[in-house]
Amino acid sequence: MTFFSLLRDGLFIFSVVFIWLMLLYQFLLTLGGLFFWKREKLSRKEEKEFFPKEKFPLVSILIPARNEALVIEGLLERLASQDYPQEKMEIIVVNDGSSDNTGEVVAKWKGKNSLSLKLIDVPVEESGRGKGAALNRALNLSQGEIVAVYDADNLPEKDSLKKLVIELVNHPELAAVTGLFRAYNRHRNLLTRLINLESLAFQWIIQAGRNYFLKIAFLAGTNYVIRRSLLEKLGGWEERALTEDAELTIRIYEQGWRVKFLPTAVTWEQEPEKLTTWFRQRTRWARGNNELILRQIRGLFRGRFSLTFLELANLFYLYYLFVFAILVSDIFFFLSLTGLLKLSLPGPYLELWFIAFWLFLFEILVALAIEKEDSFFNFLLAILAYFTYTKLWAFVVLRSFFEDFICRREKIWVKTERFPELIEQKGDKSR
Q1: pTM of the model
Q2: Where are the domains of the chain?
Q3: Do residues 413 and 129 lie in contact, with contact meaning Cβ atoms separated by under 8 Å?
Q4: Is 230:175 a contact under the CB 8 Å cutoff?
Q5: What is the 3-state secondary structure (H, E, C) of 333-374?
């Protein structure tokens, strides 16, 4: 046997083993997500609806806004109609050097409404330092015992804030509670439909599954509440982090606190409608996760270990070992189809591929069924996602690796582009 054949067979075995390890892990999390959904459903039936008005704490709602004129008024309207005592709410909008009329839209809305709202205009020369910096500015001027965060494109359901706060107040062991996010523009085009599948799978498999088995949940960046006292103890948000939500989550767990995923607290958000916007956003996420992986590795050498290490180990596995295995598998598949490569290793590899394919579909359909979106069209969409959308993530990971470790490019927080809201999208809030 030649060196080439040994290398070829070794790479093929590597891809099969590492792909299947991830598939089994994801399958386990899917079961955990189902158990979590059933448990939450039962607990909501048993809990009492009444919550004394005097027990509602003052909540400071922080909104970082940079060029959000297209969407921010929708969020303000939703906050004004929240099923939460208005005298116990203060809204703080940080207009982070916007080049559009974000500030004017907010000021105009403030003049027509009685809800407490502060508008912070950040000078252009001090702006653009990222979401963490904008949130810290707002935190310094806030007064609430509880801090809530919403992105400017969000449209929270009427009871979302109330549910988050009640959960946090009733469970003193929790540092924060994060809700579920949905895509209100999911019917806009093929990309938003695929993103919808991804977001549902992430929340009902990864988020719910690890919350069930490990009692771990990561802040989603929006639609969450956190205790002010802990936030101040932690020094607020890390301004240099590209994924300030995940970075804050890790510090919360390092302090011995917990974060809970509460899927009944729902907000609707706008997803990227252009592939270039998606690539920029996902690359920022991937580069932010690279930071977290490196930080955890450094902490491991210093003898620090926490539950989040398991999650970041999974992230490293997913981003590098699994992606590399997928690339090898796809290359081998293409070369085999063209007749340029023939594998001599015995084994039921075609059968394994079919099982892997159906496992993927099963996991997606579980998430869709929970949200009552398990239509035949979405079944076909999931098949398409397997061959297209999931492969795009490999390019995102490779790009983030190239920018971080090869070019060592400066980490700059890239604002996600917004798109005009359609009337039919804003009215689509049923679950």
Answers
A1: 0.91
A2: 3-30+297-426, 47-273
A3: yes
A4: yes
A5: HHHHHCCCCCCCCCCCHHHHHHHHHHHHHHHHHHHHHHCCCC
For 119-152, b/e burial (b = at least 16 CB within 10 A) is bbbbeeeebebbbbbbbbbbbeebebebbbbbbb
Whose structure tokens read 């969407």?
71
Six-digit token string for 66: 């940079």
First to last CA, the chain: 59
CA distance 236 to 228: 9
Using an 8 Å Cβ cutoff, are 18 and 322 in contact?
yes
Per-residue pLDDT reduced to its tens digit, 334-363? 887 777 777 777 778 778 888 989 999 999
At residue 149, φ and ψ (nearest 5 deg) are -125, 130
pLDDT tens for each residue of 211-234: 999 899 999 999 999 999 999 999
Q: What angle do CA 103, 104, 110 make, to 5 degrees?
A: 90
The domain over range 47-273 is classified in CATH as 3.40.50.300: no
